[in-house]
Design goal:
Shape of chain A: globular
Oligomer: homodimer
Helix content of chain A: 25-40%
Chain lengths: ~270, ~270
């Protein structure tokens, strides 16, 4: 471990994934991953810049931050890059009127968007709202468009809740892509534009930044393709086979965020 | 049309798709496509061999035939190749114990299969039973297997009911494939084994047979890859863009089954 810790030299900014790194979600709100509350506090007391970069698309950014603060985290809305507010801006810029296939908890992020006579579909991690009826409605909207536009908030395969692994938005996006014969546009990790917007908000260049996440493809692979370094934590949806992933190799693997912060404070910014 | 009708010379056997060719399904049971009841009767009075080859996986074969008989069709269970009975046999041969993600209407086809301690998932057109909870359960069963086996009854993208286009099993199969990083085994069209089993039951060679269906990829493309000829009907889920499909070109396009039978009786078996 010490060997690769030196690869963190020169890091000035840290992007933190939230679910599976800070906490594990669950029906009761979820619980912090041991050591993560203190690890975030230590990072924020250091000279390193910190930003949270999530694909959470079930909750509004405000609700997510409220939950994390109740769990003890020092975090504010302005520090969080989240896909729903990013998508809302993109829709306005492009004159797109969305049909939403989303969880009720995130609907408020689209309050400023015109929903009349939809000319695109926005799909997010809708959880129980991924009913056959709702999926079929989104499918029918797409099939009636001459140029169907499908915007997917992330393309995660699954995430971990306290009760077990749960299907994420990426699986349902694949279903609509296949049924309609189209390809979705992704707003969220691993889209390079999304990582770049988070880096810009932190005012740090890609080669000076490290991403810390539990998703070997979405977090680690995506950040590396943008020129960042990336660590995978062995919490959240991490599975031992991730360390033998055929395509993606993290710059380092750590047991949890606390260990990542130990290493960062020892090696970064030198 | 007359020009390509001659391509039907030498046909001795006809495979008929059911949904979208014989009838359009619907909540009220559905309705026959005009002319199809008579067209089936004329075919069966001719010297041509006839077999029905369906991907219907919401209903048991018995229920499907019962419905079609009530709509006026001359059809019996023994004339129908359907994916659920085929899958049930394959499961027994391979010692597979299925977790079923299927419509209640087809569950009886698996009465002879051992369901204890599942070592595979069978997915069919489950309709409203494609809830998030049921999809997530199937996903979790697969993720707990060392060698996950997913058997999909067909891979259709969508089908047409009287109320509109409906998502088919293929879309949900893609979702599980993506989430688990696996590839499903297909029992049903366009699997070559499935077409061959239907040809064998009709005792006709591929080059002597024609498939008639409404699905340019699953019916037409699949049958052609087996060495059969194939006609697409402009009923059911047919869309005008199918006639410009980038990869599949039917041997002929007909307005409906009645027109296909006119041509067959004129040109086949000569």
């Amino acid at each position: 471990m010490a060997a690769w810790g030196e690869r963190l030299a020169g890091v000035r900014g840290v992007l933190l994934d939230i679910s599976g790194v800070l906490y594990d979600g669950g029906e009761d709100g979820g619980s912090p991953i041991p050591g993560s509350v203190e690890a975030v506090a230590r990072l924020k007391r250091s000279r390193l810049k910190v930003r949270f970069c999530t694909n959470e698309s079930q909750k509004s950014r405000g609700n997510l931050v409220g939950l994390l603060r109740r769990l003890g985290f020092d975090i504010s809305e302005g520090e969080v890059t989240a896909p729903a507010p990013a998508a809302s801006l993109i829709l306005k810029e492009r004159g797109l009127r969305p049909h939403l296939l989303v969880h009720d908890g995130v609907r408020s992020e689209f309050d400023q968007n015109d929903m009349s006579n939809p000319n695109c579909v926005v799909i997010a991690d809708a959880g129980e709202a991924f009913s056959y009826q709702n999926m079929n409605k989104a499918f029918q909207v797409l099939m009636e468009l001459e140029n169907p536009v499908l915007i997917s908030l992330g393309k995660g395969r699954y995430y971990k809740e306290t009760s077990g692994l749960m299907l994420d938005v990426g699986a349902y996006t694949k279903a609509l892509e296949y049924a309609c014969g189209i390809e979705a546009e992704v707003v969220g990790k691993p889209s390079p534009e999304y990582f770049r917007s988070a880096l810009k908000e932190m005012a740090v260049e890609a080669h000076e930044a490290v991403m810390i996440g539990d998703d070997i493809v979405g977090d680690v692979g995506g950040a590396q393709r943008c020129g960042m370094r990336a660590l995978q934590v062995r919490t959240g949806k991490f599975r031992p086979s991730d360390e033998r992933h055929p395509e993606v190799k993290a710059d380092g693997y750590v047991d949890n965020l606390a260990q990542a912060v130990d290493l960062l404070l020892q090696h970064a910014d030198k």
